Amino acid sequence: MSSAATMIDIPLMTTAEYQAKLEQCIHCGMCLEACPTYPVFGTEMDSPRGRIALMRGVAEGEIPADDPTFKTHIDRCLGCLACEPACPSGVDYRVLIEGARQTVEQHRTPGPIERLVRWIGLRQLMPHLGRLRLMAALMLLYQWSGAQFVVRRLGVLPPTLAAMEAILPPLTPHRRDDRKPFPARGQRRGRVAFLRGCIQEAFLGQANDATIRVLQRNGYEVLVPQLQTCCGAAQIHAGDEHAAKALARANIDAFLALDVDAVICNAGGCGMVLKDYGHLLHDDANYRARAHMFSSTVQDVTEFLAAHLHTPPTGSLPLRVTYVDSCHLRNGQRVVNQPRALLRAIPGLELIELAHADRCCGSAGTYNITQPSTANTLLADKTADILATGADAVAVTNTGCHLQVIAGLRQAKPNLPVLHIVELLDRAYATTEPKVRR
Amino acid sequence: MTAHPLSTLQATLPAGHLITNRVQLRTYAADAGLDRGVPDGVAFPQTTDEVAQIVRWALANNVPLIARGAGTGLSGGAVAERGGLVVQFSRMNAVLEFDAEGRRLHVQPGAVNQTIDALVKQQGLYYPPDPSSGRVATIGGNIAENSGGPHCFKYGVTTNYVTGLTAVLADGQVARFGGAALDYPEYDFVGLLNGSEGTLAVITEACLRLVGNPPAVKTLMAAFDSIERAGQAVSAIIASGLVPTTLEMMDQRIMRIIEDYTHGGLPVHAAAALIVEADGYPESVATQIDEMAVVLRQHGAVELRIAQSDAERDLIWYGRKSAVGAMSRLAPAYYLVDVTVPRSQLAATLAQVNQICEAHDLRVGYVFHAGDGNLHPLILIERPSDHELLARVHAAGKAIVELCVAVDGSITGEHGVGIEKRAYMPLMYTPAELQAMQAIKHLFDPHELLNPGKIFPEKTPQLQLAVPRVPAPTVGETVQPASPTEAAAILQAALAEGYTIRLRGGGTKSAHLPPADVTISTAGMTGISAYAREDLYVTVNAGTTLAALQAGLAADGWWVPLASPWPEATIGGIVASNLNAPLRSRYGAIRDLVLATTVALANGEVIRAGRPVVKNVAGYDMPKLFVGSHGTLGLLCDVTLKLAPLPRVQKTLVVPIATLAAGLQVGRKLAAQRIVASAVLLCDGHVVGEAAPYTLLYTAEGLDEDVTAELNLVAALLQRHRLMARHVDTPGTVVWAGWLQAQVASRGEVLRIGVPPAQCAALVEALATQAQCMIDLCNSLVYTAGDVRAVMESIAAVGGYAVPLLAGRTRPVDTHPTPTAELTTRLAQRWGTNKQLNPASLPVAIA
User: Model-level pTM?
Assistant: First the structure.
């Protein structure tokens, strides 16, 4: 299974390239306050600078690679990359943490239950949209039957499952036939391919519908390649690079042959990985060049639309909206202004900036499942910041954040809508449409 | 090394407040500099009591303590070179009290610099010290290093904004130095702890002074054909009487390196570029920038870019702020040298630094705070593990330091000595000066517990005390030494005879003190000994009267922003007695204006405390100790003071006020919105010929546009309170001086009462039923000639004090000895042989 498979990869931390990247850190400490875990723990080991010091210790052989303290502090990193924009020396932290996670993973023997859960989740569910959809249907039944209410009241689930259950959003039945291209509307501007994602498609399918409609409306024909699969982000997070590479190859095969202007992704976390396939497959001679080519065509939907909003919405959406940045969009892809520009392009909508907009909400891939206590602290802060804005709706740009923010608001303000930016755009367009079935 | 009985500490601290895991400790081995040392443990206290507990434990077990903030220092100050326990303040970061109206902020040391600036900006206030590390650096660390930043040129450094400290002393006692009030009648230990790099005490609370946030700011960039011309342009701007907030310079090399990386449009074809920024009222910044542009063009600016929007301003700063990042893309590491020279020496120094780096085959670039003469050569280290390269880097670093010392500069302007530069201390200081600093260290930390090994060279040059060179004066004699050396010799000889010595300047205070065996007068040391307009300082002999100094400077358009009620007051006397006029809220107090002083010590040695540069953090900030020391630590022989351009405009409004309560209410509101006010006074009586029971005075000074804008705001506020104001020619400081003179003449003595601003109004209301008074509302100082015994308890309860203006007249009442009072006595004993040197001059707070 996963651990056996990854053993054949060369440990990243031992490469000369990795060690050169470690040297880039001049331990100035400018990353400390940018890091969400530093204020939580107040300790150097839970800051990027401290983690890099530990990585150096392992890379130089002074700390054993299987040291439990090393693992603890690497596991506590959200991977939100808020340290990267804060770093004056341009340290490539995403590569450093990836290598450290791989080392941690290689030196650990997960118990049989964890292995089973991970095997199911990362290998048997996420890459298979049909199975995810089936699961979503079961969850819908779980919610509608009242079982969720009972389970939550009784608190009977073991911690890991409870953490997963906690981020389950309210579901509605959803089905879209996307085997045929969606035609451009109005003046034709071009053609794009859409990566719909796995969890996003199964649990937040409405955001995908909206993405397609908004692209159509701006003159783009939208293809949804049927051979696409999960992006591999969760697998990389879990240190299962081998599985991630297989998914990357499958996606490159599914998309690269298409004649499109861009590959559109609407989840910040997925987009960052898609844009990084070149790095992921850099030691794969067959795919290296193709991976780079593929990555160069990937754009986040907000990035693409901000540059190609040929038909801005004219209908008014009189809402006060706050925007929760996706860390992997903001720090990983450096897409900061485009989502805000799109929100401001909606007539009537007032954008209220969130305090600590650069701070992670605690979702961070699977972090809210593996480190629930820290994740909940961060989520509580984020929820308080959201409530302080007095906004009527929350805009998001990533699956994980989307689910996390909904979970955060469940106690405080369950009716506050949490919507992808394209859903807000879609609604603004809809106000000027004759009523049709949606 | 693992023999430390940390388990006994573990047992006394709350769970999770101590780490001893070897792997975790590795992450505390460094700060942002190049030195290394793994501690034996890291403690995370959250209260002063917990810190005191840790110190007592360390004392009992002889374990070194290293206080640490965010670990962003560049000189190894927070590195546990000898092992020991790191006291980490990241979790002790609360804001304890914020008095927005009174402009005070009381914080724990782990509070982050930019976080508190953001907090106070919400209330229209500003915490000016802004080190580049401010996004993460803590106030405790800032205080330990006396941090500066790009805005120091106008606003000064950290020590100028710290009014009070709570600290745990090396014996575990908790001491309070200063507080939320100003000018406490004690040695300026607050000033001494600033920049002491954690070697004297462990700071656990700080009280900070805030200023009004100027509503507007404007930025320009100017390009020059040569560094010399850029340097001359800087001097010309300063000479024009404008006070920019920043004067940053970049040379061509660094601009090319930055531009390759940022593509922000830097003038890479020019030899140097200046970034100049002005702040103030919106009406004023545009004209300031226009005027500066004219001056810059006259002095050879070949290209000028004035930011017309925030985006353009950001673009100008983007290049400057990307310097370090751009350099680090060329090499994995660098050595950032931090030295200061008098500003007029900048261009020449730069050329020599280039030669040094070329001779050592090193790549170097510069960004620097040109206004402060603070140079930051950035030497690239392409291979951090190459020992031969590192040796060359260090050799170049030392040569640069020597160069700066040779022109009366400092070996460190803002990064501190730490481990990095301790070996260079003897380059800058004489054995006598180093010994004076070491005496302070021994006084505070006799067991070498606190950050041992920092600041001081491993081997201090031995001081050979001179034998008395002159015969002792005879009893009853008044001697007038003509030089510091002579003064020191006389002091030594007289003290050796066991004589008591009275020090005399203008006689404004000494005349009121009991006679001593011998009097030493500074009347033989008068005149200006150095006048450096370009470097914004003047060195004046201590016996010179302030009036004579101001007269000399005024002819040139300059002044020293000080005032005294007594025309015969000398510079030495003013500094020694530390009486600050209302204008200190506009220009800083005496402690903020004294850059250096030459002192004759009781041991016969002459030391020069400080250097004539605005940024100098090499060793302890000794000039602060002499301000307000009333001649008990030595005889001040000369003083180097910061210069300021004479204000172009000075306008005063007077407002007749019917009741004290109304006066306090309006006066406090006015003071709370000040930016360029030099006095906001509330007096009873009829100081400027008003027929009302009370008078409110508001003086604003500086640039015409700023003064007009501020007085318009004042007028609007007065109108809302239905109060009438009229203009008078007498500024507040002159009214203050006249009032004090008159009171002393008629009543014989005046008390000066300092209270935290938040309690000022309540105190005055309690006081006013019994006595006439004058209130300096900006500085929360109250002067009265009346009887204050009834309110003494409430003054003391809020952390205030009352002292007689003319020391010695009111007999001090013995108070409960505090650690601060003990340190005061012991320091006086060590340096001034206590009761012998200027006896009974130190005012003791009455109780």
Answer: 0.93
